[in-house]
Each structure stands twice: as C-alpha cells, then as structure tokens.
Amino acid sequence: MEVNGKDELMQPLLKSSDSVAVNNSQPNGPNHNGDKKAKTVMFKIRGIECASCSNSIESMVGKLSGVVSVMVSPLEGQAVVRYIPDLIKEKTIKETVKDAGFEVDDFPDQDIAVCRLRIKGMACTSCSESVERALLVVEGVKKAVVGLALEEAKVHFDPNVTDSDRIIEAVEDAGFGADLISSGADVNKVHLKIEGINSPEDLTVIKSSLESLEGVNHVDMDLEGHKVTVSYDPDITGPRSLIQCIRGAGSGTHFYQASFYIPPRRRETERQHEILTYRNQFWWSCLFSVPVFIFSMVLPMLPPYGHWLEYKVHNMLTVGMLLRWILCTPVQFIIGRRFYVGSYHALRRRSANMDVLVALGTNAAYFYSLYIVIKALTSDTFVGEDFFETSAMLISFILLGKYLEVVAKGKTSDALAKLTDLAPETACLLTLDDDGNVISEMEISTQLLQRNDLIKIVPGAKVPVDGVVINGQSHVNESMITGEARPIAKRPGDKVIGGTMNENGCLLVKATHVGPETALSQIVQLVEAAQLARAPVQKLADQISRFFVPTVVLAAFLTWLGWFVPGEAGIFPKSWIPEDMDAFELALQFGISVLVVACPCALGLATPTAVMVATGKGASQGVLIKGGNALEKAHKVNTVVFDKTGTLTIGRPAVVSAMLFPEFSMEELCDMTVAAEVNSEHPMAKAVLEHAKKLRQKHGSPPEHVPDVVDFEVHPGAGVGGKVGDRRVLVGNKRLMRSFNVPIGPEIENRISETEQLARTCVLVAIDGRVAGAFAVTDPVKPEAERVVSYLHSMGISSIMVTGDNWATATAIAKQVGIQKVFAETDPLGKADKIKDLQSKGATVAMVGDGINDSPALVAADVGMAIGAGTDVAIEAADIVLIKNNLEDVITAIDLSRKTIYRIQLNYVWALGYNILGMPIAAGILFPFTGIRLPPWLAGACMAASSISVVCSSLLLQFYKKPLHSGG
Q1: How far apart are CA 960 and CA 947, in angstroms?
Q2: Of 367, 448, 749, 933, which residue is 20 to 30 A from 345 by alpha carbon distance?
Q3: How far is residue 199 CA from its own chain's centroid?
Q4: What's the pLDDT tens digit per position in 198-211?
Q5: Which residues, 6 or more positions from 220, have their beta carbon under 8 angstroms from its beta carbon?
C-alpha cells in the first residue's frame, strides 16, 4: 500500500451511523430510457409456502398499472418490485399483496427519505421538544431529531406516506417557522436557471431534450421562475453536460442559455437577519425605555429638574405618569409582540417556555400600572406608583440578552463554517485530444466539475475536488482537513483531497468524487449530523425544563402571596415598604422578579453549544466525533484495546537493519540483492529492494543499469534465486539456503535467532553458495505508539493489544510499545468477545482498529475508533474516526471528550447557579436584613447574563490544544 494511498477519505467518512437514504434505482443502460423514472423497492412477505404462492403474488402485482417488473423469492420470502412512482405508490403495492392473503412487513430503512429543516423561533429546550413532538405525530415520520443550538431538525420519513411540505406544515402549525435545507434526494440533483424562454413550447423542448440525455433520471420544470431541476446518475453525466444539452436544444432564432442556480442556503443570511432583528428591536426598545427610566428613576431624584413631572393633568394623573404610559405601551405591545406570539403557541401546545414567563411578568407590571393610571384619572385623592419602567426595561434587557446570545451562538459553528469555505470557487479544466495532448484550458465553477474531468492545479492553488494524480509531482498541505502539519508528497497514482493546498509543483488530477461525494462534504455532513444528535447528558436539562416553568409560576405566585398577606396584615414593619409603594406593589415586584430571573434558557443551551464547538474543533484537528453520544461515552473510557497491524504498526513491511558478513563488500551485497529482487512482486521483496537501493547510494554511486538476472526462479514461501552475470544469487529464508546446501554457521544462526526474538523476519542473501549478508524485515511500529501508550497510562487508562498475529510477534510488539496485556491469534469475532469480557468486568472500552476484521470489535466496544486510512466498513462501524493515520489522535479524542463533558457540567453550574442563587434573592430573602432587592429589570439582566455566560463558556473550547503533538 502506498503511503498516500492510505488517505482513503472518500466514502468511509460520510456514512453516518444513522443515515438512511431512498433507494433510487439507476437506469440499466441506453435502452432503458423509457424506464428512467422507475424506482425499485424490496419488502418481506410472510406466509409464502411454495412456488405457486410467489407466482400468484407476481401475477397480481404485475397487473397493476405502473409496475414495470416484479420478482418474488419463495425461499427468502422477499419481493423486489420495479415501478414508476408517478403512476403507483408503494402503499398500493403493499395493499395488493395483503389482499392476496399474505403479511407484508414494514418497508425497511432503505425506503426512508431524510430531510433537514431550519427551525425558527426556538428559545429553550421545551421549544425543541415541542417541535420534535409535532414532527413525530405526522403520519409517515419514523424519526425526528431537533437541535436547539443548531436550530435544525433532521427527519426520517416514508416518502410514500408524507413529504417535506407536510412536515414543514406540521412545524408551522406548532407555532415555529421552518425552511427546507436539504432532502435525501438532493445528492445528485442540479438546479439550473434558463434564459431565452419565450413560450411554454420552449420549456417542452428543453424538457424532452434533457430527458433523452443518457444518465438523466428525472426533470422538474418551474414555469414561472424559468428554472429546471434535474436528477442524474453522476457516473454517466453531470451539470456541465446538462448545460451543454440545454444550449444544444436551441435552433434557428431560439437560443437557450443555462447557468448554475444555487437555491439560497439561508442559514448564514438568516443568522445575520436574526442578529439584525434583535439589534434593531433592542435599539427601538431603548428609544422608548430609556426616557421611561429617566422619568421614573433619575429626574425625581434631581430637584428641581423633576418637578414638572408632578404637574397634574386631570385629578391625580400626573405628566410623568402619562408620559411613562405613552412611551411604555409600544414597547409592551409592538416590540414585545414576539413574547405574546411565543406564549400563545406554547400554551396552545400545552407547554410553557421563556416567552410565557416574560409575558406573565411584563403583563403583571404593565396592567397593574394601567390600573394605577385609571385610578389616578378618576380619583382626586388616590396616591399610587406605577411600574411602567419595570416592563419597558425588562423587555429591553431580554432583547439585549437575546442579541448577545445569537451573536455568540453564531460563533459556535465557526469551525464548521471554515471547513465549508475550504473548497475553491473555480477550477482549471483541461480538454485533451485522443493522443492525450492538451487542446484547451478553461476556468469553470467547481460546482460544474464532473467525474473523470481532468483538472490542472498550479502551485499555491487549492485542490477543487477529490481525485487521483495523473501527471506531475508536488507536495500538498492537507493540514486543513487532516490536521497533519507536514506537506505530503504526491506523485502519479496518489489521491488528493478537495480543499487542500498544492504547494510547489503543477499537478494534473482526474476527478473521482465531486459535489456532495467529496471527503470535505462528507466531513461537513458528518459533523452537522453529530451536532444535531442529542447527548445523553442533555436528558437532565430536558427533564428539568418539563416541570420548571410551571414550578417558577407557582413560586412567583407564592412569593407575591408571601409578601402581600403579611404586609396587609402588618406582620412585618411598615418601614420595610419603600415610601412610594404599598404592600401590594412591593409583593408584585418580588413576584415579577422571580418569574423573570428563573428562565430555563441557559439550561437548554448548556449541552448543545458545547457539543457543537467540540465536534467542529475536533473535525478541524482530524478527529471526527459522530455525535454527543460518542463524546459522552469517550470521557468514561478506562481501557483502550489496540489492533496491531495497521494500527500500532505501519501496516507494510520495512527493513529495519542490514548485516554484512566477512569476505563481501556492501556494494556487492546491494547490487546482487537489487538484481535478484527487482523481478519479485512480494511485499517483503519490495521492502528489501528499496532498502538495498538506499544502502547502495550511501556506499558510492550505484551502477547505471541493474544487471539482468538469468534463470530467475521463485521458490514459494522461501525466496528467489537466479544468476547475475556469472554469479549464483539466492535471496530468502533459512529453508531456501538449506535446499541449495548453503552452509549457515553458528554466527549466522545467532544473528537469525536474535532477529526472530525481536519479531523480525531474517532475509538472507547468498552469493556463490556463501551467505553474504542479511536484512531484518518487520512491520515497523508507528513512531508515536510508545508515547501514546505511556500517555494513556498517565491518564489512568490501561492499554491492551488484540491481534490475529502469532504470539511471538504480538509479544515482541507489545513489549516495544509498553503494553502489558496481549491477546494473540484471535479471529474477528474473538476480538469482539474479548471486549465483551472486559466490559463484563466493569471496564469502559475503546477499540482502535483499521480493518474489516476489526468492525465487530468496533461495534462491541463502548467507543469504536477507526483509523482514517482504514476500510469503509471499519469507519462505518466506528463512533469516532481519526482522519490522520496517527495514534496520537486516540488521546486527542479522549481528552477532547473529557474537556467537553467538564465544560457541559460547568455550563450546568452556570445555568442552575443563576437560578438557585437568583430566585431566593429575587423573592426578597435578603430584603429584611440588608434592604437588598432585585428589581424586575435587573432580574431580566441576570437572566440574559446566564444564557450569554453558558454560550461563552462553550466557546472557550475553541482554544482547545492537543495534549500530544507530532514530533515531525
């Protein structure tokens, strides 16, 4: 395996553990054009007893209009139906089979579509739970996950029963906004804007032209917007061919132009819009609230400047009271309208959120103040104090808090945004003639690249898509994706990853993966899925938030009662009541403060914001964590089980030492070895050949031509032999030497024995019947392995090796890296059993592996970690993917998870700390002793501060540094 061939970052990374996709069948070739829109579905049928049963099902289903073909296997009890979705639904097929008297199992996961929605208007955990409940009651929805911090939902649904429009409708009915971000069918779909359309006939011409193009599966026309959406097979065609097809459809005076149309990805623009909205609302609120505050709190304390506020307009209604009422009303009902809307939807769903608390608090203050105004207007003796500044200032502070929170939350996905922006916007496309000469170079949009395109990448340019180097040599900096600081040499045949930087040479690259298939897109999708997944630690917040709001409302009512009744009954001294208040007003202020200070927003943000920052940071450092669950499990790990080959070792043979025996020179040994081994394909032979060439260069200039070998023979399991010039050369093991009667003296026997004790294979070289030298070959241990095992030990984590290799080799490697416990000669299922044994003894196990044989163990372990150079199967089975082929990232993954869980716990302390400390102070517990009370507007500021502090605490994870750094 080549060094760079290990960067297998293609499909493995993107197969998220919970991904489900619609199984759209592709056309079988050019003769199936009429069948392009057909889809294949498989389902289980129970009750088939013989071939006649399957025949009767086939004939009944086959007669249905829209069914192209049907096959029923009586042995497996399975039906495969090919049908045209425009003419018939899967549900009808299923019902037909049921009518025939057979039981049909639910459609498997492959028939489930997935869509992602952007959810607007969520304020706290109870909102995200409400959205989730609204989605799950929609018929056909199988699974729904709502991320509060990400403001997104991922919905798995049966496309035969419902669609994304119905799902969006359900979210809107629950009182939230929803926009479609993507659906499962978007993978190989392109949106094009068409110019030059003058009549519906033009659209018909374009549609029929596209449908006749090989590789096109489905065409949707938007008559009003002059847009077309085309689903296609990326192996056959692509966006550029579709644009050329549209241009070619024009004739005579009709010319059509098509350009790439990207439906706006609203996420960033919406975030900016949300920030702008909150900022504007805050400024408008301040415009009214600040004068109210000045008229209420400041001017009355600055005589004679405040005297004019005491002038009576009518009866006891003063100028100050009237101005405060006029200025407060727009804040309460226009700027604060969002709280009424949110409360209405929450109460309609029979739940309560932050909006309910704010609306209750501000309404209590406003309507009590309004009562004071009416009483003052109608009475010539009444004396009372209004609270207009309470409701106005409270709304202002909450809006300021939301504005700062939205700004801070935007930064939590910075790492992901940086990854998304890595891919360049344009690429240099080459056109070749039949002889392979370059005819033209053209700069085109990266989104128009197709598979098998040839791209030229000049020094200093970014690689636009994943591909294979066809020509040229260079060094590519892959640090932005793999975290590997050193530029990696690239030669013809090596893979390159989209988004990486070409440093010094010019490369010609053939595109293998474009659009959403690239490693970069896959990483982004995986991290987005991880950020959406709910960590088990969040259950605490969810449970608290369920009963929190009703408890707070009850606490606020009891606080009001607890101050009002004793005040009226004269239980506490009248001196406690401020001059400008009565017992009712003082009690009301305490009650409103309790309502506002106890908002559970911060609690809902504690986990998702930390998970978002950690998964984004991990991805930028070469560690892909598949969600909060993996993150939480990894912090408990106390045992790490390592596979040997390709995990602790490099995974390919290499010569670690060479011995020269007397009577022969090093030049002689190297020349004979190179000549004999140059024709061998064995991996060990290649390792010996490479080492011999390097040694020859050290000991003087090598000969210009490698001498030819005559009578070359391969001796399976032993080595090779032949004549080089007039000399007989043998390269192989002890068995080969003995079969050719080459004497092996005690000195050589000792050397062989020493080599084998170190788990190395001794390759002997004999020239003319005498042993000239030997090469010690091994699968070398990764340079960082010993350091990693030692560091894990210092973290309190024990290391174990499980391998299918023999005991001697396994023990030697384990000794070299410092592992005490070894299980050797273990098959793949045996590895999984060993992990289960460890778990039964109370260990939390992480398994680190890279091969297909490791996948059962990766699944069995509490946390499966796949080395990025490993196989698709291993990476799919793992919870954490280490993109680089570096063991140090095992420590990074565990350390990052520990830091994240610590940060989440700290966030809970911040969130609950505000509530636990704030509520008693707001309820007036300190007031009798110190005279300190928390006015409602200050309680609002405290509530906002709790959310901001939690988000900022999570953002500190952005400064995470790896505990171990590569020495190179």
Answers
A1: 22
A2: 367
A3: 45
A4: 777 777 788 888 88
A5: 228, 229, 230
Residue 45: beta bridge partners?
104
Q: Which pLDDT band holds residue 33 (cuts at 50, 70, 90)?
A: very low
What average pLDDT does the structure give for the chain? 80
Q: How far apart are CA 414 and CA 407, in angstroms?
A: 12
How far apart CA 170 and CA 168 sit, in angstroms, is 5
Q: Strand 863-867 and strand 845-849: pairing?
A: parallel
pLDDT tens for each residue of 290-308? 998 888 878 887 877 778 8
Distance CA 39, CA 68 (A): 9
Asked whether the bond before 304 is cis by omega within 30 degrees of 0, the reply is yes
Identify whether the C-beta of residue 471 lies closer than 8 Å to the C-beta of residue 437.
Answer: no
| Closest to 785 (Cα-Cα) out of 793, 775, 796 | 793
- 570/587 Cα distance (integer angstroms): 14
Identify which of 472, 465, 547 has the alpha carbon closest to the alpha carbon of residue 514.
465
pLDDT tens readout for residues 807-841: 877 888 899 899 999 998 787 778 888 998 999 99
Q: Number of helices (H) and strands (E), helices first, in the chain? A: 30, 36
Written as one letter, the residue type at 441 is: E
Nearest alpha-carbon partner for 24 in 93, 104, 113, 105: 113
Residue 814 in contact with residue 795, Cβ under 8 Å? no
Residue the block writes with tokens 């609306």: 359
Specify whether the CB–CB gap between 722 and 729 falls below 8 A: yes
Name residue 798's beta-bridge partners: 639
d(CA 376, CA 383): 7
Both tokens assigned to 809: 């080799």
- pTM passes above 0.85: no
Site of tokens 């590789």: 215
Nearest CA among 629, 412, 405 for reference residue 538: 629
Burial class (CB in 10 A: 0-12, 13-18, 19+), 805: buried
**What is the rounded distance in angstroms from the CA atom of residue 374 to the CA atom of residue 363?**
16
Q: What is the 3-state secondary structure (H, E, C) of 813-831?
A: HHHHHCCCEEECCCCHHHH
Check: CB of residue 776 under 8 Å from CB of residue 684. no
CA angle 536, 537, 542 (to 5 degrees): 90
| CA distance linking residue 917 with residue 615, whole number of Å | 32
Alpha carbons 185 and 211: distance in angstroms, whole number: 18
Residue 187's pLDDT is 56
Q: What's the one-letter identity of residue 638?
A: N
Does residue 64 come out as left (phi exceeding 0), alpha (psi in the -120 to 50 range) or beta? beta
For residues 763 and 775, is the Cβ–Cβ distance under 8 A?
yes
Reported as type and span, the H/E element at residue 473 is: none
